[in-house]
Amino acid sequence: MAIIIKTPEQIEGIRKSSQLAAETLKYIEPFVKPGVKTIELDGLIEAFVLKNGATAATKGYRGFKHASCISPNDVVCHGVPNDYVVKDGDIINIDVTCILNGYFGDTCRMYLVGEVSEYAKKLVQTTKECLRLGIAECKPGNHLGNIGFAINEHAVKNGYSVVFEFCGHGVGIRFHEDPQVDHVAKKNSGAVLRPGMTFTIEPMINAGKARCKVDRKDGWTARTIDGKLSAQFEHTILITEDGCEALTDVYGDF
């Protein structure tokens, strides 16, 4: 599969879908509090997405039954919404992909619930910094691998590890396209970035070992192998003529 260079019309469609996905994460923020079940959050997310004329890409994808992935504490990614009750001190990732008028927008972010430990706050902040450094490498003529090189360098410098079993990906026309965006990579490796490329950067940073284990019961929920915390942020990125645009950045952080 070749990397798809998007047309201006496609880019506008992907931008709108990406913004809706990001607005969904902003909408759900006040509901992420002690006492709520993750399945209840998923229901609110699905209702918001449908109300805005879109559908959730995850629902029905390879048998996944929910409109979002919700991953608390030691869950790295693909957390299945269930009866888990959110509690004070949790760190929780919520990942949403919208399909709006046939275009896909994909994003995730962390939520800190109540009084969170400094240990957890540092992990979350470093993960956001890793994404920011990866985005800084997104410019025409640069190599794709420099994204992962920058992410891994910063994470390791801060005493963390980078998950290599899951990665970012092209997105926009389909849920998953080329290129694969590794978060651990060699400097100046991979494809050359060109205007019109759209892909996700979504580093998963672990407080302990980089490895994951997938829950055998649901076949989706990936946890850290040592039970330590994990954090993730994700944006859908467009390569422009002179740099990039984080299409899902409605918070203005990047």
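[next item in queue]
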Amino acid sequence: MQIEPGRTYNFIVDRETEISYILKYKDEELFLHKKEAFNITTGMHINAFVYVDSYKRNAATMMKPFISLGSDSWLEVKSVVRELGVFLDMGINKDLILSKEYLPEDFYLWPKINDFLYVTLKSNKRLYADFSRNYSLENKSFTGNEVKGRVIKHLKEGIRILTKDLIPIFVYKDQFSSLPRIGEEVEVKIINSTEKGLYGSLELFKEKKRILDSEKILNELKKYGKINLDSNSTPECIEEKFSMSKKAFKRALGYLYKKRIIKFEDGLTIYKEKIE
């Protein structure tokens, strides 16, 4: 039986080198770096998880992964690389990639660091993540009319949100004003329940998010008196400065402008209390 990455095996510690232990499973040998080993000696039987290391070889770790081959889990986004995809914390020293081919074409709809994604672990000469579909679309018992969940899919008619308890909620596009990114946590108001599932609205979330975004901008204005951005600034500049979409930025500016807190001048947004 050939060792398969993504699974845990019971190995015997065959020998020790300067930087590693060599593990044996039947006729196969694996490398276990000493930084991945805990309180072991030659001759011991140990359980270790197999992954593919940076040299594209099977290697072992005694760290306990959050996910195994064919299983599903919520994993945290640790880094985002536009050319490759997003990398997820799977509980070992090597992060798990979710390729850009599984993500929206619009980079601003990609998950951000600290978002969580519900994924399954797969293997094709290397370990990689794919979005899990192991949840029921049928109605489940649900208490209350408001719940938090994360966006897991963009569809033509709307978005699908999944709670931490794996309850899916569909939100039609007329029930939100701006498209949330994949992995973003949102507050959903349940507005309908049928045999086919739960349906919700993000209108409450939209208002809360507008206030939070405006507070982020206002904190910057209070600190510096002005920012070199306004409603005509590029999405890239807004994203770099505030990590928000241009639509969200304009909505937050509108909120502050109506309260007469800011004014605009020559491409600048100015905190009025700083100059008046």
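[queue empty]
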